[in-house]
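Worked problem 6 (solution included).
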Amino acid sequence: MGHFRTTLALVWGAGFLFAVAAVPAKPDTILVGAPNVGSTEFAMNTFDAAAEFTLSAPEYVTTVDVVLLGGGGLYDFALQNALTGSIKIFSSAVSTVPTSGQNTEVMTVDQTLAAGTYFLVGGKDPADTFPGWWLSDGTYVTYAGTVADGIWFTSPNAPWSFSGANDATSAPAFAVNGSTVVPESSTPLLAAMGMVGLAGMAGGRRRFRQSEWRARKLTTSPAQTYRRWPFSYFQLK
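Solution. The predicted structure is:
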């Protein structure tokens, strides 16, 4: 009977692990962003620019996409918590955009960001007259937070300024992507089954060891007991 219970527990535990492993991970989804490109771009020949967004709860961010105008040279981008003062950078990337038109560049993040406001800051190196950050059409994804309706910009030795909807300026084109594993509705039941199975296996092992001890105590001679359990010999007499 004990062996049957142990086997049943193993089957239940294996079934639970298989079911949990079979729960699919949701593909990346846009948590917040301005993914639709409009008809113009923000020239970055002498300006750095930034998009502002807020997460309403902690989210696991996989990547951030930006849509840039090509023309050669390097773009430097960073995801950070502020524009001035004590700045914490969560991720950064350097991208080469060789072609004209719209070029989607990807920055890897792969970490959980706390609820709060963040800035996606970009600059061009070296600065020239061609490159830019495409502006969105003003359609925002607010699944996990909000997007500032406009763009931050600065030039050397100048403070950051904001150009918003009043200036007919939308947020630059970007998307903050995230991915999470969502348990199915049956997972809690499977977890309970797995715990019951593990408990049964542990109980079966304990009962088997106790019955084995009693059998040895009843059938083993004192001399054999001494050879097997020298420290228990006087307790068994």
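Discussion: Residues 7-12, 16-24, 183-187, 222-237 have pLDDT under 50 and may be disordered.
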